[in-house]
Amino acid sequence: MIVEKWYEQRCVNHRDWILDHLEFLALSVEETVIVLVIDFMNTNGLDISMETLSHKTGMSSEDVDKVVSVLYAKKYLKIGVQGGKVNFDLSGLFETNVAKQEAIIDSSLFDIFETEFNRPLTPIEMQKVSDWHRNLDKTLIIYALREASAYQKVSIAYIEAILKDWQDKGITAKMIEEGKVR
To answer: In this predicted model, what pLDDT tens digit does every residue of 83-131 receive, in sequence order?
Structure first.
């Protein structure tokens, strides 16, 4: 059985993740543009070459070469040949210690939801949980799941309504833990 890495899951939007973590990745403007173009082209199954990158970005071939060399040196980019085709692999970007420290996609959160739902999450549900995790405190998400369970209304829509209500009221996980709410 092949285990997917967090960044290989369909619910993960690489470009959103990259843009959300620019300060941790320490990418220059040029590096960011090249990374985003490579990710776009990989996602859409387009052939990538140094000439294509130069054309897409408007950068000179020399500048593209320098940026690609820097990305390679940072171990964010691997270039290889597979099936007679050049492959630009950005997996190193997502395997950085930054990603591990930030716990960007916390599979345990998915596990908690799947246990509570008593079934695997659908891709749409995984995307919603992933979106919440990017924007909200993980503990608050779990509290909303527990509240939905207490009312036997375990659904993404119900949990989303709880989270929205709490956001509107300014309720935090700390407030719930301190018993200041409900």
So the answer is: 778 889 998 887 765 444 444 445 577 778 888 888 887 778 887 888 8
Distance CA 148, CA 155 (A): 8
Per-residue CA distances from 13 to 6, 18, 39, 123 (Å): 11, 9, 10, 12
Query: What's the token pair of residue 30?
Result: 């040029």
Q: What's the CA gap between 182 and 174, in Å, rounded?
A: 13
Three-class SS of residue 145? helix
pLDDT tens per residue, range 55-68? 999 999 999 988 88
Q: What single letter denotes the amino acid at residue 167?
A: Q
| pTM exceeds 0.85 | no
Q: How far is residue 19's CA from residue 121's CA, in Å, rounded to a whole number?
A: 26
Contacting residues for 149 by C-beta, under 8 A, at least 6 apart: 116
178 in helix, strand or coil? coil
Burial readout 103-116 (b: 16 or more C-beta within 10 A, e: otherwise):
ebbbeebbebbeee
Chain centroid, CA 121 distance in Å: 17
